[in-house]
């Protein structure tokens, strides 16, 4: 399994790029959002990858972080959601946006992805809503482009932080509140508003688990009106 590729961006195509790793070119399919965030041709690039194996084809799909790769794998686990639909969802929402929409039951946001109809969007929300908070709490940072690659290439720069393994979800109490705060921080909420929402959600049910706490806090933080 090829889990990560680091090299030089050789060219950009329609929905895919070619990454040169020491003279070997790898075609990697990426979402529109990921494509927009890639460097220029000839520059260093690194992507986490997932390999799709079929009888007649092998395809690599690329992601800027382990967190987004995990969302891709969850999305394709839903019946009727293939790689194309999963990449479309991530292209519109990104990993964080997809997690927020699923946790809040906002299937309309999922439906905004090209080629994703209402039935599939509702199925995505229904099947993944209980898994969303745990993935959101992983706290996996953006890919460390200087870390050792599964397919070793050049050393891109600048260096970043390495990926962190997800911690087991807490069942309730202070541990659940800490994980909920971390998840909201990963979604871009300010510490003050995140803490206020988590405290209010925890007050309504002090022993709720992390998943329920994140869902409740997101509802409190959702725009009113």
UniProtKB/TrEMBL annotation:
Gene3D superfamilies: 5' to 3' exonuclease, C-terminal subdomain, DNA helicase RuvA subunit, C-terminal domain, Nucleic acid-binding proteins. One of its GO terms (molecular function) is four-way junction DNA binding. Keywords: ATP-binding, Cytoplasm, DNA damage, DNA recombination, DNA repair, DNA-binding, Helicase, Hydrolase, Nucleotide-binding. It is found in: Cytoplasm. Residues 174-225 are annotated as: Domain III. Residues 73-92, 108-127 form the Helix-hairpin-helix DNA-binding motif class domain. Its main location: cytoplasm. GO terms for cellular component: cytoplasm; Holliday junction helicase complex; Holliday junction resolvase complex. The keyword ATP-binding applies. Residues 1-64 are annotated as: Domain I. One of its GO terms (biological process) is DNA repair. Homotetramer. Forms an RuvA(8)-RuvB(12)-Holliday junction (HJ) complex. HJ DNA is sandwiched between 2 RuvA tetramers; dsDNA enters through RuvA and exits via RuvB. An RuvB hexamer assembles on each DNA strand where it exits the tetramer. Each RuvB hexamer is contacted by two RuvA subunits (via domain III) on 2 adjacent RuvB subunits; this complex drives branch migration. In the full resolvosome a probable DNA-RuvA(4)-RuvB(12)-RuvC(2) complex forms which resolves the HJ. Has three domains with a flexible linker between the domains II and III and assumes an 'L' shape. Domain III is highly mobile and contacts RuvB. The RuvA-RuvB-RuvC complex processes Holliday junction (HJ) DNA during genetic recombination and DNA repair, while the RuvA-RuvB complex plays an important role in the rescue of blocked DNA replication forks via replication fork reversal (RFR). RuvA specifically binds to HJ cruciform DNA, conferring on it an open structure. The RuvB hexamer acts as an ATP-dependent pump, pulling dsDNA into and through the RuvAB complex. HJ branch migration allows RuvC to scan DNA until it finds its consensus sequence, where it cleaves and resolves the cruciform DNA. HAMAP family: DNA_HJ_migration_RuvA. Belongs to the RuvA family. This is Holliday junction branch migration complex subunit RuvA. It comes from Actibacterium mucosum KCTC 23349.
